[in-house]
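[#protein-structures] MJ: dropping Integration host factor subunit alpha here for a structure pass
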Amino acid sequence: MGGKTLTRADLAEAVVRNVGLPRNESQELVELVLSEISNCLADGEPVKLSSFGSFGIRQKGERVGRNPKTGEEVPITPRRVLIFRPSNIMKDRINGGQKGRRRAAE
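AK: finished. structure tokens for Integration host factor subunit alpha:
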């Protein structure tokens, strides 16, 4: 998996190449899309991107954790966490189109 990390600049460059928008407009478009996704999630709204997946927020309750160095119990406060569920199309694409195959652990 030693590939390069995809950045905002890479996304903007892909828009320039594939859509033909000027570079500054492509950067603005990428920022607008990411901002809209972030704002919706911050407001607790789920975000579904067809053929890609869905993002959502899950509420995690308070629980007791443990400091790995000392073994001391530490309370972990309730919080909201971001979750992502890939679509079946994305799962198939990642797995090279191997439809219907499951890992032995499942």
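MJ: nice. DSSP finds three helices and five strands in the chain.
AK: one more thing. The chain has two domains: 7-43, 45-66+74-97.
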